[in-house]
TrEMBL record:
Gene3D superfamilies: Rubisco LSMT, substrate-binding domain, set domain protein methyltransferase, domain 1. It catalyses: L-histidyl-[protein] + S-adenosyl-L-methionine = N(tele)-methyl-L-histidyl-[protein] + S-adenosyl-L-homocysteine + H(+). One of its GO terms (molecular function) is actin binding. This is protein-histidine N-methyltransferase. Keywords: Actin-binding, Cytoplasm, Methyltransferase, S-adenosyl-L-methionine, Transferase. The keyword Transferase applies. CDD domains: SET_SETD3. GO terms for cellular component: cytoplasm. It comes from the Eukaryota. GO terms for biological process: methylation. It is found in: Cytoplasm. It comes from Sinocyclocheilus anshuiensis. Belongs to the class V-like SAM-binding methyltransferase superfamily. SETD3 actin-histidine methyltransferase family. The lineage of its organism: Eukaryota, Metazoa, Chordata, Craniata, Vertebrata.
Length: 580
């Protein structure tokens, strides 16, 4: 995939023996397992230096193996007559149409026997270790990473035509230098980036020990060549390419690497890839009409740019789904907590959750609008939505912009949003103007450029939220000052609500951000090598989220807005927000 990685030519042979004793390396590995986050990078660099020249690689350039990949795919029964692999400059390699292709036309299919899956790993040389290792059994993406390394080291592997075409390195944050990572400070990506590096290093140390000491690992072709760079490469290969497919019997899903299809680059659109169980193959239809010689794109999903940077190693300029996450909750210490929580529950919204500010207009979803309306309700307004006339039906109006709770409620919620976004902007150490100036520097490294673009994009979303909040606040203040009549809910309006995009469902449902965390939890960044840590789901740390400050102090701190803790303290004081 072009945008998923840069290509560097691999010119070394099958590896060289470094001047380091097994005992010395094992001591370093043991030390790595014990290190805290702040000390890990220095130790990793020490290990990498001692392992220089030990990695397995292929003679020749990546491009030299594309014809072999296409021939292998055709031999396996894949479709190869509608496209070819081509280089698209800044986007890297991708698929180019060799004929006109109509929208929704099936142009690509890949049979199961070409796929590298958790199932194929269990049936490979890795199978014995898999049967004994709890981490491999629990974490399919780690299994795929080791499966990839074992097959790369096997001269007779059926997947070599595919593996030889994978990039030699990637632009995922695992490849960032420390100074490049610093550009991500205060962004939504920073905590996941740091955790990703720490967890990958600890995973490597764990499996290094397993490979050299576990009896079921004795036949693995990795004992003489399992470096940190090898593992980082495998982790990035899987992280940028893994997809879910049905198992052979269709009873559940498993993770897979899909050769050839994974050469497609990303654009906005809809998911156009599925799995045909009857023909047992992955199938992809065209996203739109493509003329001969045009690049063929697919849609990777509704990821934010923070997620693209973390998991794919690129920033997508025209991301229609970019967003900044914010964690909001009603403080349990608030007097009206029970009433607010009940109204929110009836609307299918938790009293504490992660929401998002979007790059589009309006910047908030129906769910966030509903939450903020309830959050800002007076006791009388809460009672009206709980036991008032048409209380049950009025729950439907909470996410609909046409039915304000009151002009005062609208003023308060948009004031909150404006204040919240403005304070979050203060957590960044640079301004948007400074970021734009930095991006004009010709000597800026690619990774620094990606990081600064992400940082700037987040600020622009927050700036739009500030602007929108201000405009809405002034609009509703004018409505209040002029004595404008409030649109009142009538029972007959239910027909209108049934067709409104902003309506809320009648049943409880998860927020879209919670659905996306399922995908995030599959990422290698969440995996820890300790058996006790196998439950690796977590809530991302966001800019503005820190310790719990529930607004019990009498006065807000004077310099609060200059720090993350202060931001939360001010918001907690004025709005009763809980940052658990």
């Amino acid at each position: 995939m072009g945008k998923k990685s840069r290509v560097k030519t691999q010119k070394s042979g099958t590896g060289a023996t470094a001047a380091v004793s097994p005992k010395e390396m094992m001591n370093l590995i043991s030390e790595l397992l014990q290190k805290c986050s702040s000390a890990i990078r220095a130790l990793v660099e020490k290990i990498r230096k001692k392992q220089k020249g030990m990695s397995v690689s292929f003679e020749g350039t990546r491009e030299e193996f594309f014809s072999e990949l296409m021939a292998w795919a055709a031999e396996c029964g894949a479709s190869c007559d509608s496209f070819e692999i081509s280089n698209f400059a800044d986007e890297g390699h991708g698929l180019k149409a060799t004929r006109d292709i109509k929208a929704e036309e099936l142009f690509l299919w890949i049979p199961r026997k070409m796929l590298m899956t958790v199932e194929s790993a269990k049936n490979s040389v890795l199978g014995q270790l898999y049967s004994q290792d709890r981490i491999l059994q629990a974490m399919g993406n780690v299994t795929l990473a080791l499966h990839l390394l074992c097959e790369r080291a096997n001269p007779s592997s059926p997947w070599l035509p595919y593996i030889k075409t994978l990039p030699a390195d990637y632009d995922t944050p695992l490849y960032f230098e420390e100074y490049e990572v610093r550009h991500l400070l205060a962004t939504q990506a920073i905590q996941d980036v740091l955790s990703q590096y720490k967890n990958t290093a600890r995973q490597y140390a764990y499996f290094y020990k397993v490979i050299h000491t576990h009896p079921n690992a004795s036949k693995l072709p990795l004992k003489d060549a399992f470096t940190f760079d090898d593992y980082r490469w495998a982790v990035s290969s899987v992280m940028t390419r893994q997809n879910q497919i049905p198992t052979t019997d269709g009873s559940r899903v498993t993770l897979a690497l899909i050769p050839l299809w994974d050469m497609c680059n990303h654009t906005n659109g809809l998911i156009t890839t599925g799995y045909n169980l009857e023909d047992d193959r992955c199938e992809c239809v065209a996203l739109k009409d493509y003329k001969e010689a045009e690049q063929i794109y697919i849609f990777y999903g509704t990821r934010s740019n923070a997620e693209f940077v973390i998991h794919n190693g690129f920033f997508f300029e025209d991301n229609a789904h970019d967003r900044v996450k914010i964690k909001l909750g009603v403080s349990k210490s608030e007097r009206l907590y029970a009433m607010k929580a009940e109204v929110l529950a009836r609307a299918g919204i938790p009293a504490s959750s992660i929401f998002a500010l979007y790059c589009s207009e309006p910047p908030i979803s129906a769910q966030l609008l509903a939450f903020l309306r309830v959050f800002c309700m007076t006791e009388e307004e809460l009672r009206d939505y709980l036991v008032g006339d048409h209380a049950i039906n009025k729950i439907f109006t909470l996410g609909n912009t046409e039915f304000p709770v009151s002009w005062e409620n609208e003023i308060k919620l948009w004031t909150f949003l404006e204040t919240r976004a403005a304070l979050l902007l203060k957590t960044y150490k640079t301004s948007s103007e400074e970021d734009r100036s930095m991006l004009e520097k010709p000597d800026l490294s690619l990774h620094s450029r990606i990081a600064i673009k992400l940082r700037l994009a987040e600020k622009e979303i927050l700036e739009r939220a500030v602007s929108c909040g201000r405009a809405k606040r002034l609009h509703f203040q004018k409505q209040l000052d002029e004595g404008a009549l409030l649109p009142l809910y009538e029972e007959s309006d239910i027909a209108l609500l049934e067709n409104a995009d902003a309506k809320l469902p009648i049943i409880l449902r998860k927020l879209e951000e919670e659905d996306e965390r399922v995908e995030e939890e599959m990422s290698l960044a969440q995996i820890k090598p300790d058996a006790a840590d196998l439950d690796s789901s977590k809530t991302p740390v966001l800019n503005g989220q820190c310790k719990d400050l529930n607004g019990t102090q009498e006065d807000p701190p004077g310099d609060a807005v200059n720090s993350v803790e202060g931001l939360e303290s001010v918001l907690s004081y004025f709005y009763g927000l809980n940052f658990d």
